[in-house]
Design a protein that fits this description.
Chain lengths: 337, 337, 337, 337
């Protein structure tokens, strides 16, 4: 960590600041005095120092962090890729994870039909929303516990592990048989939820918030990992920008950047990112090409009658065609599909 | 709501779409056929229609909403300003609400000292965080129930009503004696939390999310109001943009725009918006000048030793000076302070 | 175009508005009267109507455009892909265009060495900056006319057509022998420059501005095309967002979206988008996978000694390896390389 | 400037880097070796070093600038406020500058009528566009030289100095009698234009680009000042964000921040920022309250018939009322109006 001092900061004040910092232990401060500005370089364990607190000092002009503030998620300290095991399948290894299913679980007929179709096409996991975060209180909010029951029904029939979103820790008991718990973009910094999920033993699919940096995403993963749960899967699903042609802007550069910063697996959600069904396939190809470990895709047997997000759902037939088109691309990237 | 049809959409499909929409009841569809494009205008109660679901139809090019999707928060249907009563004081009337206090409650000595100081300067409410949303799991997370007890202690001594942030519905019982419950920016779309707060009888201070539009803010207010709780206070606290000179970009234009769209009171948080102590006063002046109903300001008796957000906290002396400088501005705007 | 009228707008005023619009010719107005709001649907040639001007009317609440405001760039009116011929090569056909070269032309030795190297690896065009847009007036600004002479020298030796950026119409004569003129991101809405380039007969490589929508990019292309020059090549080079891990955020979803909206070819600049050398290859793969017509890549024989943008430049050896790795990907996408 | 070195960077390579930097002269490098990372602190004149070039080195992880890259615009080196003299009036002193007039000059009748009206209300300068940057080539582009002639006519009649926008250096001769030359937001980084304006002796009104940081704005001012022209007036006119309720987001926090960073005067354009006529007055009040040196406001005698930007223009009557309402606010801020 580097502390840039104000011009003409009194020597005594600087020394007091250094004393205070070194009192935290395991930190050594080195001072460089320049004509126009002086700096203090901190060497050691700076993870417990908050930049803003240092910046509150009267003699400090700015504080800049050198080391990443996350540890357990940091590739520097864990060079090998994390592979998350989910039933018979895994996320983060050489296989390309394909998670498919409807935005919302609507009925047994619907979820089983979609599950059977996507399994036949090669999907490795089933997604489906039981609790739905909707901007409007007047929109369909999901089938809740019934939705989870129907997902488990579909799992029993197809054998596909299931992923579904949690919106409140109060519902955690309903997720006992769920294979992967999803934290949605709007809850990426719902820290109380993250802490609780750190104490459970299930893999967590953590989606990047609409306006969250990659560092913040990793800090949220760190919340879960610090609680003891190392099975975190990151998901980029589009960020909010000024562009309105697509619902969000899919940041595919997040994939190689995250691969460098962390050992956790990364998947891409092209459905929510673009919000348009016909864009799913080209962006899915792009995701595989930049090195994503998998995809999560909305598939609905009747998109025009979907209770939510029909605009971005593809049909089982389109998913089947997508899978066939992705296979050579996956192979090229050294992935099995 | 207006539906723009695709070129050469088959007449039969268009009719099917219209039938489906009109089946929802209380909606009439009018079709305008043009050379290059045709549109359907929907008249009636379109609040239950989801644009994206219509947009999923094969014959639809785009859907545009004409009416606001919020009702209870909408000034069109409630022309008079809402005034929220909090103990002896109120928010949204002719008075200018001044909420002041530390980012975090740290000790009885600290919170009582700050409370007494800001009361003397004219603050109408006391703020202080007991549960703190921190980006890092390694940062100070607040004193939790002890923090709330200390706030109540400070209230007993000063008579100032207290505002403090809730981070999980699991903690709701601890808030029984709190006067105003704050929903932080990161939880603005924590819909399960909003729903629960709709069932409680306390005023809710709802902060705008870092990347949320004013319409989304009003939809989140609508969640609370739809549950039966009409006492919602909106708070603009800076949005995330590309600019890095300030922590966030304070959107003061939100004040007159929200005043037009809704009847709910609006306050400004210049401390979190800019993240810099010396910017609090000029931006507080700006907030009053554009018509805000109040301010929420971080005050700490020793900013350099604050356990969080010291960089943006002002001292009790600076707050006292701010109050004196704000008085003529408030008067000019027809506000008592 | 759809005009949403204010509640209780006087009938007489509405009629006056309609008269004014229909007076422009070739436009028919249809009015739909609803309980809470009424709309006017305009059918015909609305390209000359400015939304904001209509929105200034006292009786208008909002105006929404249905048809795209661009015509010559619009795929609806020109379904076939435009293929831009540049010397022996072309952009936008089945071949994948590979433009490579240094950020700045620095010396004959440098530009010839890079040109020979990238040609050997399979590049189809040479890039190099003679006029450099730099944020700081104290940074190296390019070799100007000497830079162009050196590019022409490299062209003579290698046969590679050259692309270089124009920053002012005052320099146009210096570009007489340049093959493709580049308009940089910062000049995307330098409309006077665009108008002048509309009168020249050279292909124009038009880069998307840092904060410009795809529609604005197409409107800038329309400026050039309206002047008579149909040879416009679009280039996505990263947009400005809140994320700081990469210099900009590369918007690969722009490729399929632009392919749908326009018939013009689209290339990707991964070097400027990410600003980091090791990210060029993965993002180049992603670009090909989403359907880009080509890439423009910074290659420098000694990135550590580059006079600008060394951080994002790759070596000739890295470019050669990139080309080999891209070939099977290009083939998979039905492109020759 | 601080250079963060990669872990395990070879000592020899670090020494080579330091040698290269010190060879630039007037720079001393101090190295701090830590366990996990080492840093080099550069002390001296680092304004000619480009961060990205250093960052290209194999041994460098990151580079962080400590000192601002602008000098002539920097308040540190010029503590006193710059006051720009324009005819009998000045910008940046104790007076509040009020620039008013139509978006476009449309006719002699129009510009003279508006000029006389705004003068009577107390405006100190007249604005009006002769060259108009329009997104669409099919929109009205301004009256060009005739427009400037009409402005000069209005100046002769009213005595108001005139401000008008330049879009190309090719038109500079037409601006011989113009009092202040405006550089629009889209040309803020048209560096060739800025360089030329650095050689002229007229005050330049430099608008912040839609997605430009305050540092970039100051670097563009530096371009003009480095050429010899110290009379630069900065203008905040709204930045591009995700919010769509207003055309842009007016960043009023830019005023106090710029006041700290630079000695140049700063004015606010509430008309372009919000794009809505009724928002001009509240945001103008806010601008004065945060300490702006002036305002530039669009006034049109018939907004509904304006050839551009009618939606955001206010009538002369509304401007007169605005002036009366602003006076006590200006007085409160110690400004004469």
């Amino acid at each position: 960590m580097i502390i840039i001092l104000k011009n003409n900061a009194p020597k005594q004040e600087i020394e007091k600041l250094i004393e205070g910092i070194e009192a935290l232990g395991n930190i050594t401060a080195n001072t460089i005095i320049g004509e126009h500005s002086s700096i203090i370089g901190l060497v050691g364990d700076t993870s417990r120092i908050n930049e803003d607190d240092i910046a509150a000092s009267d003699v400090v002009e700015a504080v800049k962090r050198v080391q990443e503030p996350y540890k357990m998620a940091n590739r520097k300290f864990h060079p090998d890729d994390t592979v998350v095991q989910v039933g018979d399948t895994s996320i983060g290894g050489t296989g390309l994870t394909m998670i498919a299913g409807p935005c919302s679980v609507e009925s047994e007929e619907q979820i089983v039909a979609v599950a059977e179709a996507v399994k036949k096409s090669g999907a490795t996991m089933l997604r489906g929303g039981a609790f739905k975060p909707r901007t409007s209180p007047y929109s369909f909010q999901g089938l809740h516990d019934t939705g989870i029951q129907l997902l488990l029904e579909a799992k029993k029939i197809t054998g596909l592990p299931i992923v579904t979103e949690i919106m409140s820790i109060a519902h955690i008991d309903l997720f006992a048989d769920v294979d992967v718990i999803q934290v949605g973009a709007r809850n990426m910094q719902n820290f109380e939820l993250l802490k609780e999920l750190g104490h459970c033993d299930k893999p967590i699919l953590l989606k990047r918030g609409l306006a969250n940096t990659l560092e913040e995403l990793l800090m949220s993963a760190e919340y879960i990992m610090a609680g003891g749960n190392q099975n975190v899967i990151l998901c980029e699903r589009g960020i909010r920008t000024f562009e309105t042609a697509t619902r969000n802007t899919l940041d595919l550069s997040a994939v190689p950047m995250l691969k460098r910063l962390t050992h956790l697996p990364i998947i891409i959600d092209p459905s929510h990112a673009c919000g348009i069904a016909w864009m799913v396939e080209p962006m899915a190809r792009g995701a595989v090409a930049v090195g994503a470990d998998g995809l999560i895709i909305e598939v609905h047997n009747n998109p025009q009658k979907a209770l939510c997000d029909g605009k971005q759902s593809i049909t089982p037939a389109a998913f089947d065609s997508l899978m066939q088109n992705l296979r050579p691309m996956a192979q090229l990237m050294g992935r099995t599909l």
